[in-house]
Write a structure and sequence with these properties.
The chain is 48% helix and 23% strand. The chain starts with a helix and ends with a helix. A four-stranded mixed sheet has the order 1-2-3-4. The chain has 134 residues and is α+β, with helices and mostly antiparallel strands. The chain is elongated, with a radius of gyration of 19 Å.
């Protein structure tokens, strides 16, 4: 009886360890899939659509935030402030996971105007993440 319990416990332990030991590339893929699945319910000022794209070989994720804002100087200045605030909130809520960044994944994030031109681009990596956490 004890031997059977030991065997079952060992099998359960091995399954838990196997599931818990994901490499960075697997985590990157899972993040992109989960992010895109949750994207329709994403809420932020002026953001009408967000998407993620993973680049496994480069350990990079691209996040795009499409807005309905016209590309002009006042909107560009406002977007710069709003986008940094949005990224900071997303990091704090773990919508952009710090553990992936600490594992070397770089997030290239884009805040786009209504014509898909770039208002603001921010790169989140090990070096830049501290400025977003302050």
């Amino acid at each position: 009886m004890i031997r059977k319990i030991s065997q079952i416990s060992f099998i359960v332990l091995m399954i838990v360890m196997f599931v818990g030991c994901k490499n960075t590339k697997q985590k990157l893929q899972e993040f992109v899939t989960a992010y895109n699945a949750a994207a329709p319910s994403f809420k932020a000022d002026n953001v009408r659509l967000t998407t993620a794209r993973g680049y496994i070989n480069d350990d990079k994720i691209e996040l795009r935030f499409e807005t309905a804002l016209e590309q002009n100087t006042p909107n560009k200045l406002a977007a710069d402030i709003a986008f940094k605030k949005l990224l900071k909130e997303m990091i704090k809520k773990n919508q952009i996971p710090k553990d992936l960044i600490e594992e070397g994944v770089q997030f290239d994030t884009y805040f786009l105007a209504d014509d898909n031109t770039v208002f603001v681009k921010e790169v989140l990596n090990k070096e830049t993440i501290p400025e977003f956490l302050n």
